[in-house]
Predict the 3D structure of the following.
Amino acid sequence: MTQLQARAVVKAYGATPALRGITLDVAEGEIVAVTGPSGCGKSTLLHCLAGILRPDAGEVHYRGRRIDNTSEAARSRLRRTEFGVLFQFGQLVAELTAAENVALPLLLAGTRRRAARTVALSWLDRLGVAEVADVRPGEMSGGQQQRCATARALVTEPRVLFADEPTGALDTLSGEQVLTQVVRLAREQRTTVVLVTHEPRIAGYADREIVLRDGTVDHTGLGLDAALPGGRR
């Protein structure tokens, strides 16, 4: 089943074009890496697919329903319930503990505080950072912060995870650990993942790679592991 579709998506910032008519499909449960040089439109494409930005022209569809022309409130609700978003620097709330950060999407969706904390603790444990549950972000390492941010992005068990350079601020080992866990959890839950990265080794975790250049699709191909005999798919 096709989960996400972009049809001739165009986006510009003032007189500077970012996307020049992007068309692509992403299947349910697929992990897709969007790669290309800096400034090619990778993050803009992710933000349009996630409903964070509205394209200037073209259409974005999620599970057969057009979403780019819906209200900001409707798109925000979609991001709280169906989508998870993971950014390069995690963007945890500095005043909240790890458990409070992870529980936040559940609380916004109406889950009672005690139940939300229980689920948050479970996700922190799954990501290997249960020990920082009552620690604030400023007292954590970069890897711990990003694992907490990953737990927050996955706590609602979204159908789609959008990850924008999720390992860009981490050292190689921490980045590999975070990506390994994201892929494992996505496989377990059959979560679709759209992963923006400029690093070939990170793109190798994906089933398929979409390479952008100057706001257009340059080419597509299999991710490294998916191309190997006995790969993840």
